[in-house]
Amino acid sequence: MRVLIVDDESLARQRVRRLLQSEADVEVVGEAGSGHEAVALIRELRPDLVCLDVQMPGLDGFGVLRELDGGHVPMVLFVTAYDEHAQRAFDVHAVDYVLKPVDEDRFKAAFDKARKQRANAVAAERLGELLETVRRLADGSAAMAEARADVAGGGMRGGFATVHGNVSAAPGANGAGSASGRFASRILVKQDGRMFFVKTTDIDWIEADRNYVRLHVGKTAHTIRERIGHLEDTLDPRVFARIHRSTIVNLNRVREMQQWFSGDYVVILEDGTRLRLSRHYRDRVEKQVGV
Questions:
Q1: Can you tell me the mean pLDDT for 85-107?
Q2: Which domain holds residue 201?
């Protein structure tokens, strides 16, 4: 982890540097004795963590963060002699707030929090890149399948090779053996005395409710009698991912992810829907695409 130390007192900077020497995989990339110098060094060096004093002449610690708005903002561990700023530190999502004189054990506990937070952030970034890769692959696969259907069927699409319960699997261009042919392209819905099909590509996300699932399509939800585990097996894993024991999401609808608690994440869809991504299924998504 790359760390920048910011404090207007030389002895305080030396104390923090000595404490960091006992931490593995830490590189102190620089020191700053003022807020303005800190802003310049953060923009130049892009550290992972800043050990930042609050009270400094000219530009205080919170002023440093304001100056960085819109640019690279590292994790912040406040090290200060004043405890009245603790609430403000919480408001700016600081890793921790350590009071001077700095106790070695207290500093180590705070730094461990920073290490875990960075590990979670790296994992979230990796998963975000993974989701974007899967979305690109899914877009390409869907375009190729549509082109093959146009050529093979003269504009006629659909047809059903096999039907398993409420889930219908559409054949590939040659009727069997293609990747797209093994997965459902439409799902049969029985509702209010009528039957109709929902295209899997139109589904935003799927929610389990005991022996039933709800297919969320825009502002509409369709309920079918099906177990989520069986439905998952019929869906193209390049397009759909199980992110929780009760949730499957269309990767093409994912807008962003935000770190939550205990290694979990919040997946935010294009329409603002917020879904929980558990650690267990995060690992499964990675294995799903072979990374």
A1: 82
A2: 121-288
